[in-house]
Amino acid sequence: MKVDQIINQPVVETDRFDLRPLRRSDMGLIELYGADERVARMTTSIPHPLPPGASEAFVSLAMSDDRIEDIWAMDATKSGGSEVMGLIGLKRLDRDQSEVGYWVAPIYWNTGLASRAVEALVQGNPLNNATMFGAVFQDNPASARVLTHCGFEYLGDAESFCVARDSTVATWTYSRKL
């Protein structure tokens, strides 16, 4: 029997779901959803096709003590829902800042889940940030609406490399003072 490592990362609770640290049992659903090209193409870091062992490596990194990003599963088991509906993370930056990133499984698209998860993370502010940033691909206006709905303000255009697309993609960058 293997016991998951307990990591120093708080649970952020909402009325419908919790944002909780990843655990090894999440690998199957992360692999299922992450292997979906529609999900991978809207992130910078998920390759498509998803190579063997990628989700195991991702979860192991998320659980490590020397991680640079805290990642939470959107877990609705307390309201009878799925154990993993998507992921949300905060990548630590300097000067009490972080960058929020998230993806939601396609079955939960257009349900408001991403907005509720980002808002919960902003309200909970588990890293005690002064500012949070977010960047979305310009061909993903739904993610831009999530950020603006949660009080993020547009900063400007940039670009990021997308592993699944194997190309640089134009982005919109947002920030929110906390």
Would you give an account of this structure?
This protein has helices spanning 27-34, 37-40, 54-62, 113-124, 141-149; strands at 12-13, 18-21, 69-75, 86-92, 97-104, 131-137, 153-162, 167-177. The protein is an alpha+beta fold. Helix content is 24%, strand content 31%. It is built from 5 helices and 8 strands. The chain is globular and about 40 Å long. The chain has a domain at 12-130: 3-Layer(aba) Sandwich (Aminopeptidase), CATH 3.40.630.30.
Rg, rounded, reads 15 Å
Look at the helices and sheets and give the structural class: alpha+beta
Helix fraction bin:
10-25%
Low-confidence runs of at least 5 consecutive residues: 1-5
Helix and strand string, N-terminal first?
A: EEHHHEEEHEHEE
Q: What order do the strands of the largest sheet run in, or round the barrel if closed?
A: 1-2-3-4-5-6-8-7
